[in-house]
Amino acid sequence: MPRLVSHPDEVKVLSRRFGQGAASIEKYIELDGYKAVQNAIAKGEEMQTWIINAMKASGLRGRGGAGFPMGMKWSFVPKTSPKPKYILVNGDESEPGTCKDHILFREDPHAVIEGAMIAGLAIGAKMGFIYLRGEYRYLLNIMEKAVADAYAKGLLGKNIFGNPGLDFDIVTQTGAGAYEVGEESALMESLEGKRGIPRIRPPFPAVVGLYGGPTIINNAETIANAPHILLMGGEAYAALGTERNGGTRLFGISGHVERPGVYELPMGYSLRKAIYEVAGGIKGGKQLKAVVPGGASCPILRADEIDVGLDFDQMAKAGTMLGSGGIVVLDETVSIVEFALRTIKFYQHESCGWCIPCREGTDWIKKTLTRVYEGGGQKKDIDNVQYLAENMMGRTFCPLGDAAAMPTLGFVKKFRKEFEDYIEGKKAGTPVMTTEHDLVGAGH
Amino acid sequence: MSTVTNSIFSPELAARFDKLVTIYPVKRSALIPMLLYAQDEVGYVSEAVIQEIAKRLDLFDLDVRSVLSYYSMLRTKPAGQYNIQVCTNISCMLRGGYEILDHCKAKLGIGHKQVTPDGKFSLEEVECIGACCWAPAMQVNYEFHDELTPAKVDEILADYTKKDGK
């Protein structure tokens, strides 16, 4: 079972109930649970403004990867709508290197429910969906029990907390294996019982979303912060982080470190300290080679580039992204050629096939890198890979094309010498990949 | 809802499906959960499963097939009683995911998407399963097993060999 970890530098806001049995509704209530939503209801007519102002003041930016300010997203929903409004919690956590929502669903499921309720109150939605990835069946069971317990106590359903006319229903379900469905518009398609292909935007989901109604889609970690923000106040939450990057975040540190795990650190915390202090340094005393800082889609950083703060703006300045907060650490034994190939194999497998630049681009990059990896590479292959990736950028309905192109560009630009040497027969690192077959994805 | 007489599913699952189609604003939304739960019971998504689900949701069989082919967890052939899914994506790869996969192959004598002759086990190499910080990891049906070593895999396989049923 996923092991909980701890470090003195952690600032526990979202994770403060972890390890305390808060999946039980009694325990959750004992630890200030469902207090925030009642405080909001007590504001009466001021409720919606009060919630949205707190979210805006918190500076919380989306924890799924894109980093869009949460308060702003909530305020885009039109006040009145002829169609019902919906809340959609994205728990389709699939970005390689990311397992933070996994631990959140297991340790504090009611925080996700309460967050969805607060979002519902803020925009006037009466129904919310919590969509988990298909592999998380045991977490769906935990969420289903939490939802049933909340219904039994009258916290969900009609007249919540005994307030006439205040209704909120929650439906939980899982997907059935598809990275693409973590993208918001594909997620809505999947929830409507279809193939997970993206929708063109505009219109944005806040205006035309699920079943055609205005919809807020937030990552599970993002929305689970809402009750904490209301309890501590937006400004206090913001003060924990850096400018325009409020609060704390769950960082999953994996790969070649001594103490991998999910740690809650303040936004802007040093990447170097996260690796060397929080996660205990490089496994077995080896040397650091590189870091993928925010899930597989983020451009790689070399060992000499890790003196950077973990927030959206500092990471962008460093030429990469904070992404989903999944920090993957690579030691000196890793072959970047192999790592690049494994990364593009994933995106090629997961491309839904809807947009040609993504479907063909991922396939040709994979083919080219496979040739290089197997020893038949030519020098122009590196330029070809770069050309393909550059031509995928910004040319697809959804960000999967970019998510495949960006790390690819990072690998060939930052480690060009290693690719050139590899082609000339001087191979760095120790290969570990053994399978030759291809995983065949939906789009191919 | 179209009435389904002589359901191929157990009375419990049929009752669950009757409820599932009522909880969404649009009943088609129940399609993916239904396919998963049907697969859990039948072992795979058979022609009969496709036809009954299509009928329950007022869809064409083709609509169901189109969705079915998109999702990697849904299968149209039986797997083993215990389907072993070994992650080899980046975080698992760095901590020995391929070694675990190869160990499973050798131990079970089968390759990717193959089933042992007694039908007990099947094996799959899968993409990230969301257990990156506890790598290397695998799932047996829906159960997670993490921080694996070849010796730990042996114990896990021995436990499942001893178990009967699901």
How is the secondary structure organized here?
The complex is a heterodimer of chains A (444) and B (166).
Chain A: H1 25-30, H2 35-42, H3 47-58, H4 70-75, E1 86-91, H5 100-107, H6 109-123, E2 127-132, H7 137-152, E3 169-174, H8 184-191, E4 215-219, H9 220-232, H10 234-239, E5 248-255, E6 261-266, H11 271-278, E7 288-292, E8 301-302, H12 312-317, E9 326-331, H13 336-350, H14 356-373, H15 379-392, H16 400-414, H17 416-423
Parallel strand pairs in A: 1-2, 1-4, 2-3, 5-9
Antiparallel strand pairs in A: 5-6, 7-8, 7-9
Helix pairs in contact in A: 2-6, 2-9, 3-6, 6-9, 13-14, 13-16, 14-15, 14-16, 15-16
Chain B: H1 11-20, H2 31-42, H3 47-56, H4 61-68, E1 82-87, H5 90-94, H6 97-108, E2 114-115, E3 121-126, E4 138-140, E5 143-145, H7 150-162
Parallel strand pairs in B: 1-3
Antiparallel strand pairs in B: 1-4, 2-3, 4-5
Helix pairs in contact in B: 3-4
- Give the CA-CA distance, first to last residue of chain A: 34 Å
Strand order of the largest sheet of chain B: 2-3-1-4-5
Structural class of chain A: alpha/beta
Count of alpha/pi helices of chain A: 17
SSE order of chain B, one letter for each helix or strand: HHHHEHHEEEEH
